[in-house]
Amino acid sequence: MAHLPAPGRRIDLNADLGEGFGPWALADDDALLDLVTSANVACGFHAGDPSIMRGVTRGAVERGVSIGAHVAYRDLAGFGRRFVAVAPAELTADVVYQIGALDAFARLAGDRVRYVKPHGALYNAIVRHEEQAAAVVDAVAAYDPTLPVVGMPGSAVLRRAREAGLPVVREVFADRGYAPDGSLVPRGTPGAVLHDPVEVAERALRLVAEGIVVAADGSEVTVEADSVCVHSDTPGAVALLTAVRRTLEASGVVVQAIGR
């Protein structure tokens, strides 16, 4: 069991929302909005459409949940989980386009986009892909240099964001397996996704309290966290997030949104 966190420890709790399309829904967005403090909203490139974006941003504003642009490769068929060798200038334009689209709906709902978090294959690529990391940072800096960039601790994108003067948010995953080097276990590999609410909640608490996660080989990996993510498409996501939030708050952690 994790040690108790330091008094006044604050953490954000986020999930990917709005990842349906037309009549198809991937997750229970309304239930998840009652649990998270920040919502990474799909902007139409890997999932989502204008009606869904409008509905999720409205629901987020009603609950005081921060709205984040969940930007991705232009890959609806692959749900944004396939690497795309897009030219840096094109990627920058694509990211600006997505932020702007979601920001329009956020403003109609009475708020604004408060951070940017890449999705899927783009998120993983810019851990090490310097050109694409720079392209994402260029997009955020051009659109609004006050927007925080959410990413993996130690990633190229967070390093470049800091160098550009952008705020950064270091993210950890309560429902994903970690490799010994601190990267995520690839999806489709045994142990890549965790499903037990008790295990996921205890994992989240140790990440927040100690900055430690147990990797797939049993070793301990040190990670620094400003935000904890539970994926909305993980089976039982509502139960997982409920357990995580209750455990964190019962341990004295203040759950607080990005940009608030």
Structural class: alpha/beta
Specify the overall morphology: globular
Residue-averaged pLDDT: 95
Our measurement of the CA-to-CA distance between the termini, rounded to an integer number of angstroms, reads: 30 Å
- Secondary-structure element order, as H and E? EHEHEHEHHEHEHEEEHE
CATH homologous superfamily title: Glycoside hydrolase/deacetylase
CATH topology: TIM Barrel
Number of helices: 8
Query: How would a textbook summarize the main sheet?
Result: 8 strands, parallel
Can you walk me through this structure?
The chain is α/β, with parallel strands linked by helices. It has one domain (10-255): Glycoside hydrolase/deacetylase (TIM Barrel, Alpha-Beta Barrel). Helix content is 37%, strand content 16%. It contains eight helices and ten strands. The chain has helices at residues 29-33, 50-63, 88-109, 120-125, 130-143, 156-163, 197-210, 237-250; strands at residues 10-17, 38-42, 66-70, 113-116, 149-151, 168-173, 212-214, 220-222, 227-229, 254-255. The strands form two sheets. Strands 1, 2, 3, 4, 5, 6, 9 and 10 form an eight-stranded parallel β-sheet that branches. Strands 7-8 form a two-stranded antiparallel ribbon. Helix 5 (130-143) crosses helix 6 and helix 7 (197-210) packs across helix 8. The longest helix is centred in the middle third of the chain and has 22 residues, at 88-109. The mean pLDDT is 95.
